[in-house]
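Re-run with default settings, no changes from the original entry. Doing this only to confirm the output is reproducible before filing.
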Amino acid sequence: MSGASRFTGRRDPRLKLLSISVAVFIADRLSKTWILHHIYSGQETTVIPHFFHLSHVYNNGAAFSLFSDTPSPEKVRWMLIGFSLIAIAIVLAVFLKAGRRVNLTSIALALVLGGAIGNLYDRLAYRYVIDFLSFNFFSYHYPDFNIADSCIVIGAGLLLLEVFRAPKSAFAD
């Protein structure tokens, strides 16, 4: 708690924002645990025919299964773990500074932080990330993903929105 918050009796908004990150992590863990116990690896269950399925896929690569066919998957795994740790540290540092107010940027950072921690957990605990949301658009099968991935993408999208909404004077000089 910051000094000002301690004396005014107001709560530090970063606690609310961190609760978003924790909620993302918990939702990610619960959904992946449910998939592990209800859908066999490599199988899928139809939710909306020809459009949405729950699947059970192991992704040992990066987003959209990039690098999953590499000849040295263990090397890629450790590189992704290292990248995740650096990204989490950077997002957490920015979050702690920007999170003094609840706004679109701080909410976006909370979503990214929770998602990054969720996927890092998988890489450390299982050696791969569990993906289970499977969509088909006409004849195109979108790469399977999970709740953590969704929150990272939503958070990144919100950050981009903030960049484009920033006043032009912020870019002057």
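The chain has a mean pLDDT of 87. The longest strand covers residues 129-137.
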